[in-house]
Amino acid sequence: MTDKTISEKADYSPDLERKWIFFLFKGRPETISLILLVMICGAVAFINPSFFNMSSLVDIARASVVIGLFALGVFTVLAAGGIDISFPAIGALAMYGVSSFVINVFPGMPMILIILFSVLIGATLGAVNGVLVHGLRVPALIVTIGTQYLFRGILLVFIGTVWLMEMPSQMIDFGKFSLFEIEANSGVTVSLPVYFLVFPIAAITTWFVFNRTLMGRAIFAVGGNSNVAERLGYDLRKVRIFAFGYAGALAGLAGVIQASANRMANPFDFAGIEIGVIAAVVLGGARITGGTGTVFGTVLGVLLVTVVNNVLVLVGIPSTWQRVVVGAFILLAAAFFVLRDRKSAL
Amino acid sequence: MKRDANLWMLCVLIIVLFGFGGVVSGGTYLSLFNLQSMAMQVPEIGLLAIGVMLAMCAGNGGIDLSGIANANLSGVASGIFTLSLIDASQDPLLFTIIFVIGCMVIGLLGGILNGIVISRFGITPILGTLGTQMIFTGVAVVLSDGRSVTVGITDSLYSIGNGLIFGIPSSFILFVVIGFVLGVVLKYTPYGMRLMLTGANPKAAAYSGFPSGKIIVTTYALSGLLAGIAGVIIAARNINVKWDYGTSYLLIAILIAIMAGVRPEGGYGRVSTVILSAVVLQLLSSLLNFIGLSNFVRDLAWGALLLCFLAVGRFNLINQILASIASMRSPRATE
C-alpha cells in the first residue's frame, strides 16, 4: 500500500526537516538496522573483547548461512505482499528427501546434482504454495500454516522419521571443504567452510532479480497494490507462483547445506525457526504488508538476528532471554517503521 | 439458510463421525468414558479458537498468533506466583482461586498488550502477535528456567479440569457457558455489532465514527482472557504447565475457526459454529487415534483439512451442493 505521491510530497514539507531523524531513515530503512548492528557489536566488543576473535566471527558467519537463505526467500514473498511460514517444512522435506534418496537409491550422485535436486524439490513445493495462495484468495499466512503441516506430514508419514546419521561422503566433503583456515590464538584452527559463499551468491542473485529484471519490478508492484498491478497488466498468478517458488528453492538449498554442515539429516529440523527468520526480514526494513524492502536490508537483518542469538551468552545474558530479546526487537522495529511511515505521510 | 451452511455441515459431520467411529471401534468409541475424555480435551483448544475467531472478525488482517503462548505464560507465571505465596496443601481452595484469578489477569494483560500494539502503534496483527508470541514464550521460559511448573495438585483445581457434573466434564460445561455468553455479547451488544461491521468494512466503520482503537483493544483483550482461561484448564488437566505446551495448537485453533466458516478477511464468525467445529475436530482426532494412526498422520490430516476448508469457503461449495440438491428435488425451487 505504498502511496508514492503522498510520500514524495512529504519530502518538501518543512515539518519533516525538523524530524531529521526520520528524514535520514526515509527511503533507506536499512540504515537503522545498520546502526543497530554496529551499536550491538560495539557494545558486545566493549563488554567482552573476545567477540572480535576470528573464531566467534566465523561462528556467526557459519550460523548466518541457513537463516540467511531462508530470509532471502521470505523477503521475496513479503515483497510480493504475502507471507510464508512453510519454508522450514520445505527445507526439512528437501533435506531429508534428498539425503535418503542419495543414500538409498543413487549413492554416487555428484554434489552439484544433489544441490539441484534439492532446489528443485523446494521450488516445486513453493510453487504449490503460490498456486494455493493465488487460487484460494485467503491470507497467505493461513494457507502456508496449512501447507507447513502438510509438507511436514508428508515427510514424516511417507518418507521417514529416523535421523540419518550415515551421510553420503560427497555431502560430508562439501560441508567440510574450507575456504580458508586460521590458527586462532588458543591453538584451535578455525575454518570458514566454502558453503558460506552460497549466502552472498544467493543474496546477489536475489538483488539481481529485484533490481535488474521485470519479475522483480512485478513483485514490488503486486506487493504494493495487487489491484493496480493487475490493471497494469501484471499476471498476479505468475508473480505469486514465482515468489513462492523462489522462496521454496532457497529453502531447498538451505536444507542441503544444513545436512552437509551437520553431517546428518534430522526430519524434525528447522521447526520453530520461522519466527527468527521473519524477524530478520522485518528488522531489515521490509514491510510485512508488501511492496518494500531491500536485499541489503535483509542481509543486515539476518546478521542482526544471528549476532543477537550468538552474543547473548558472551555478554552474560542467559540464553533463556533470547526469545524475549528477539520478540522485543520485532515489536520495536515494527513500531519504529510504522512511526516513520506516519511521520513521512504527514 | 445460506449463512448457516457451515453449521448444518458440522452437525452432519458430527453424526457421521459418531456413526463411523461407533462402527469402526465396535462401540467403545461411543462409550461414556470415551465421550467424557473427548469432551475434556475440547475446551482448551476451543477457547483458543474462539480467540482466533474474534481477532479474525475484527478484519484488517486481524489474527491472534499469540494464543497458546499467552495461555502457557498465564499458567506458568500465575503458578509460580501462587506457589510462592500460598502452600497448596494447607489452603487448597484459596490456592485455586488465586491461581485462576492470576491466570485470567495475566491472559487479559497479554491480550491488552496485543490490542495496544496493534491499535496504538499500528503494527500489522500478524507481526504484532508474532512479536508478543515470542515475548510471552520468552518470559515463560525466563520465569520457569525452561522447566515445567507443577500446580494442579489441589483437589479444587483438579476438579476444574477433570471433574464431572451430571456426568459431563465441568471444563466442557465451562467452555459452553463461556461460548454462550460471548455469543450473546457478539449478537446483542453494541460492541459485537461494531466489531462485525468494522471487520466487514473498516472504511465505512471509520467514517461512522466507531471507536476503532477501543474495539480492537477489547477484541484482543477478550482473546487474551480466553487464553488465560485456557491456561487454567491446561494446568488443571495436566498438573504441570510448561512454556512449550501445545505447539500445534496455533494451527488447530486456526483450523477450527476456518472450519466454522469464520471469514479470515473479517466481518463474519459465530461462536456456536466454532464450538461445534472444535467438537468435530476432537471427534476426528480421537477417531484417528482409535484407528491407530500416528500423530504424524494427524498433523498431515490437519494441514490437508485446513486447505480443503479454505477451498470450500472460497468456492462456496456447501451452498452450491445444497442448491443442486434442492434443484434436483424440485427443478424450479432454486432460490
Describe this protein's structure.
Chain B: It is a multi-pass membrane protein. Chain B: It comes from Marinomonas foliarum. The complex is a heterodimer of chains A (about 350) and B (about 325). Chain A is mainly alpha-helical. Chain A has helices at about 5-10, 15-20, 20-25, 30-45, 55-80, 85-105, 110-135, 140-160, 170-175, 200-210, 215-225, 225-230, 235-260, 275-285, 295-310, 320-345, and strands at about 180-185, 190-195. A two-stranded antiparallel sheet of chain A has the order 1-2. The radius of gyration of chain A is 21 Å and the shape is globular. Helix content of chain B is about 75%, strand content about 0%. In chain B, helix 11 (about 250-260) packs across helix 12 (about 270-290). By secondary structure, chain B is mainly alpha-helical. Chains A and B meet through helix 7, helix 8, helix 14 and helix 16 of A and helix 5, helix 11 and helix 13 of B.
Task: Fill in the keyword field for this structure.
heterodimer; A: mainly alpha; ABC transporter involved in vitamin B12 uptake, BtuC; two-stranded antiparallel sheet; disordered N terminus; B: 335 residues; mainly alpha; two-stranded antiparallel ribbon; 14 helices; 4 strands; globular
Please summarize what this structure is:
The complex is a heterodimer of chains A (346) and B (335). Chain A is mainly alpha-helical.
Strand order of the largest sheet of chain B: 1-4
Question: Residue-averaged pLDDT of chain A, rounded?
Answer: 83
Summarize the main sheet of chain B.
Answer: 2 strands, antiparallel
Q: Tell me, briefly, the overall form of chain A.
A: globular
Oligomerization status of the protein chains? heterodimer
CA radius of gyration of chain B: 20 Å
Low-confidence stretches of chain A: 1-14
**Total of helices of chain B:** 14
Which residues of chain B sit in consecutive blocks of at least 5 with pLDDT less than 50? none
In CATH, the topology of chain B is named ABC transporter involved in vitamin B12 uptake, BtuC
Shape of chain B: globular
CATH topology call of chain A:
ABC transporter involved in vitamin B12 uptake, BtuC
CATH class call of chain A: Mainly Alpha
Helix percent of chain A reads over 70%
